[in-house]
Request: fold
Amino acid sequence: MSSNEIWNIKTACHTVQGVVDLPVSKSVMNRLQIIRFIAGFDPVEPQPDFPDDVNELAEVLAELKIGKPVIFTGNGGTTYRFSLAAAALKNEAVTLVAGEQMTQRPIGDLVEPLRNIGAEIVYLGTPGFPPVSVKKRFSGGITKVNTTQTGQFAGALALAAPGCKQKCTFQFSSHITSRPYLDMTLSMMKSCGAQFTFENNVLTVFSKNYTDAPQELLEKDMSAASYFYEIAALSSEAEIRLKNAAESGLQGDINAARIFEFFGVHTVQSNGDTILLKKAGEKIRSKHLKLNLQDNPDLAQTVACTAAAVGVCCTLTGLHTLRIKETDRISALQSELTKLGCRVKAGSDCIQIHPPTQLKTGITVNSFNDHRMVMAFAPLVLKTKEIGIHSHQCISKSFPRFKIQFEQLINSFH
Reply:
């Protein structure tokens, strides 16, 4: 099957009802994998229903454990960044080779702090970008960490630090982008036995390795849940059950519940292990929506597409990290929403969308090989009745069974 094959979606559905089984959160799972690796526990076995990012990291860590000298990491940003910090704890030299997409994503703000605390890391191509070779492990100390572009470097450093022979002190920037992800990391580290202090953006991690890595920390993916919030919002009536999901947890994208109240979607916790999304024809609260998504950038495409489909003028800010994701997500949104009839203005860290009276039908959009573009644009079929999406197979990065579950849901009343 070609990676550029078009997914042609059609439906006459207005009312949606069904049950969805979300994938495991790759953010939580990958942090747990790093903790297990540093603690010396057995690596996680890859599974067909795991997100690609989870399986790729599992394979990389298994190869790191046996001392393979050259390791291919794929295109996952989390995989490369977390693997690099973990590799910098090894005594053996290792080269981390990335996929083509990942070679365009900067890692300098992770490499420099690692060098400052003793690691020897050599760029093998363009300075500041993969691939790299790690020649010497880090030994501890104090370093500054730039967290204005992404908080993921801070998370990678924090996760690795308990395996260091001396304490590490990280002085973060005054602003920590995507702060909920760092909070998630620290919460998991604490649950697994790490010791640290965090005050005034200074994190000191002591030389005490992890003692546990409980599977109970794993959660369903709330970023993935956002696409079903979108489906509910675009339906005239909806009742969608998200199995084994909870309104509270480690993930910042639980904020989808609050955001989608604006679109008339209500969230109810049912029996403590299921989230129920309900909509019963409520009117949109306003024709204008302004949101700062600096803490939840992965919700930007979902919110933008929802607003465009229901006729809400939308201004989203705090999006500078979207420029360096799987694709430039701001430009991708501007390009594809324009195809559908929207007027879109984009800045370096913001996007403003003026929707048409009715989205154009029968349009084929480009996913730019970005899983979140596919999953955010697919629900628009509930308004357009027909839409095509290029290169939809990339959904396996975070939600391998999305296409199956989505089609079952939108055909639930046929």
Summary: The domain at 26-217 is CATH 3.65.10.10 (UDP-n-acetylglucosamine1-carboxyvinyl-transferase; Chain). The mean pLDDT is 93.
